[in-house]
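Anyone able to model this chain together with nicotinamide-adenine-dinucleotide?
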Amino acid sequence: MREIVVSLSEGRSYRVFIGPSLFLRDDWLQEIPFPSRRGVILTNDLLKVLHAERVQRFFVQRGYAVDVVAVPDGEEHKNLATVEKVYHRLLALDLDRKSFILALGGGVITDLAGFVASTFLRGIAYYQIPTSLLAQVDSSVGGKTGVNLEEGKNLVGTFYQPSGVFIDLSFLETLPEREYREGLAEVAKTAFLEGKDFTTFLLEHAEDILGRKGTVLEEVVARSIAFKKAVVEKDEREGGLRSILNYGHTIGHALEKAMGYGVLRHGEAVSVGMRGEAFLACALGIGTEEVYAIQKTVLEKLGLPLRVPQKINLNAFFSALWRDKKREGQKVRCTLLADLGKPVTGVEVEKAAILKVLPEICEVEG
Ligand code: NAD
Ligand code: GLY
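re: yes, here you go
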């Protein structure tokens, strides 16, 4: 079992425990502060069947009163309507300001539960129990919470840190292959940002990573969290440095939205986005051919896409990139890599440069 402590300003901190089967042992539990013994597991319909009972039993056997509240599975339910339904359920269950939420799920649940916890009764404690690889390596740590609006993803949210993060790697056994691989895109992103060490580790262990081998997986998750912790500790509210975590996301998000959510999964879009942004870095004289080639090899070895599988409508792509029509024609700001481990933030990129990237990553409609 690994333990990582996230230390923030004003003496705030929380522990992250990572292990092959955390919910089969409890030596870590006494390290975690709980405001009371009353809480709920907030999860989705699928994970309620797969894993909630195990987590509920674990807490109940240790003297906690824990109910399960499930929302429908899927990004399309990460919205304010779902949040409101959850508030009503929590009130019906008599939760008070000392109660807590255990968020059991992928990134949709970790974001949604964090948002509910930050607003219900003006804020109650919550703990992350991430079950997807993406949530285990990224969304469970750092306190970004949020829901989607019709206009776009994560447009309403808060910064609200969890009081603990419990990462049980055995949950990954039931994660479908496509979802597992998309988590690997965020791992690759972290490795490129961290530097040669982690990137080489991924290259050398790609087969075991794809095979979900325990010890390698624990190392991958721990390294990813250690990197994110270091960034969040320096820049909790994304005043600057934290924006490096958006590497690959500028082009990735625009592709995801232009194709219609659900066609390309988020991690797949980020993988293609990193490919595009690596090309952009070379074209703008910021990055090198060598770094471009290494990123390609890593993404390929991890079974991640380098191009999108269907034609892209240019108008849809650019209006997603500028976020709204009024900003059309302006420059977009990107994080690019000068080298592995050397991100450059806030690079302003013009439409003409993006137009040169597109043939590298997709076919353009018309
Ligand atoms: P997700 O939560 O939709 O999970 C993907 C699918 O896998 C879902 O159907 C889910 O039910 C299922 N699943 C999860 N764990 C499983 C398991 N152990 N076994 C079987 N099925 C399982 O998607 P995701 O990729 O985990 O997360 C994407 C979300 O995360 C997006 O909404 C994104 O905005 C958010 N995100 C947030 C941050 C942050 O810092 N807050 C960072 C990255 C992404
Ligand atoms: N995943 C981006 C962030 O946490 O800032």
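Residues 138, 142, 144, 242, 245 surround glycine (ligand 2) (CB under 6 Å).
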